[in-house]
Design goal:
By secondary structure, the protein is an alpha/beta fold. The chain has a 7-stranded parallel sheet, with helices on both faces. It has a two-stranded parallel sheet with strand order 7-10. The radius of gyration is 19 Å and the shape is globular. The mean pLDDT is 97. The structure holds UDP-4-deoxy-4-formamido-beta-L-arabinopyranose.
């Protein structure tokens, strides 16, 4: 019997890539999304790549009745929970919007899953929980630091909710994947990142500047204590990241978890500076980028990258694509968006 995976936020950037990888790995998928931060582009792209009309439920996880109906209508073997707001800056100005959406939706999901006899729950967490790390690279055992934004705090709270629920309710199993910096797009250029308004994140800002939508990229800070003075991050290809979810879901469904709640870092283990990323983008794609140094951005950590050993060993997963391949895919996607 084919297993069914519910993907909340499945029409978004990461959710659509995960949907494609799940279908390719032989799972059935139900996408649930409220389209609060995306349109149908990635859903349609995922259907085109997989050659299927993927089941789609338009709903909000903050609505407990809608979640109940979803679990009644489908037999769900595992859930991957992406549905959340993710703009760090906005979360500072609108904290309650973030707490309500990100935390309440997850409570509804866990309560409903338990009522329906339990579920395997994969939570989309973030390396932001490590804050400014004392030791690099960070392992899953590295201490979490107090969150510097409500967004980051919602990730910590949801991790804790999952851990505590798993402990109390044996019918729920949980995995939290801590993503480093997901970038890039599917090699088909049919799905990718589609930020609304001015992008907050580096790579969409780079591609939009290269295509002429933005005048100039600001590199935030060149006085950090790193080799070239710019920040270091672990940029993980979104297709590699998506594959990690398939391995994690399989581990849960095949009963291979060593503990009922597990955490994995999903990164490459390779630090790349902002300046290096910009230069690599220019080189790989043969484009000249208009950029300048600007003051540091509030809240940025100097450096963070993953020790992905546990994910490599336990999930049997490893990041495969090079930064060059990923930046070429990001550019191909931006060019396609320009034609839409
Ligand atoms: C990367 C680097 C910037 C934009 C955030 C969230 C995290 C996660 C991913 C979200 C930094 C620099 C950026 C620009 C720049 N989750 N930069 N000019 O901050 O590492 O992580 O996104 O969904 O939780 O915190 O990612 O892409 O914003 O920045 O110089 O225009 O690029 O200063 O060093 P970040 P980012």
């Amino acid at each position: 019997m084919k297993k069914t995976v519910l993907v909340s936020g499945g029409a978004g950037f990461i959710g659509s890539h995960v949907t494609v990888e799940l279908i390719e790995a032989g799972y059935d998928v139900v996408i649930a999304d409220n389209f609060s931060n995306c349109d149908l582009t990635n859903y349609n792209g995922a259907c085109a790549i997989t050659g299927r009309k993927l089941p789609l439920v338009e709903m909000d996880f903050c609505d407990p009745e809608a979640v109940e109906k979803l679990f009644s209508d489908y037999k769900i073997d595992a859930v991957i929970h992406f549905a959340a707001f993710k703009a760090v800056g906005e979360s500072v100005w609108e904290p309650l919007k973030y707490y309500r959406n990100n935390v309440e939706s997850f409570i509804n999901l866990l309560e409903t899953a338990e009522r329906h006899g339990g579920c395997n729950v994969l939570f989309s967490s973030s390396a932001t929980v490590y804050g400014e790390p004392e030791e690099l690279p960070v392992t899953e055992k590295s201490p979490r630091q107090p969150a510097t934004s409500p967004y980051g705090n919602t990730k910590q709270i949801c991790e804790d909710m999952l851990r505590d629920t798993v402990k109390a309710k044996p019918v729920i199993k949980g995995i939290a994947l801590r993503y480093f910096n997901p970038i890039g797009a599917h090699p088909s250029a049919l799905i990718g990142e589609l930020p609304r308004g001015v992008p907050n994140n580096l790579v969409p800002f780079i591609t939009q500047t290269a295509i002429g939508k933005r005048e100039c990229l600001s590199i935030f800070g060149n006085d950090y204590p790193t080799e070239d003075g710019t920040c270091l991050r672990d940029y993980i290809d979104v297709v590699d990241l998506a594959k990690a979810h398939v391995y994690a879901v399989r581990r849960m469904l095949e009963g291979k978890m060593k503990e009922d709640y597990e955490i994995f870092n999903v990164g490459t283990g390779r630090p790349v500076s902002v300046l290096e990323l910009v230069k690599t983008f220019e080189k790989v794609n043969g484009v000249k980028l208009n950029w300048k140094y600007a003051p540091r951005r509030a809240g940025d950590v100097t450096a963070i990258w993953a020790d992905p050993t546990i994910a490599n060993k336990e999930l049997g997963w490893k990041a495969e694509r090079t930064v060059e391949e990923t930046l070429a895919a990001a550019w191909a996607w931006e060019k396609r968006v320009a034609e839409m």
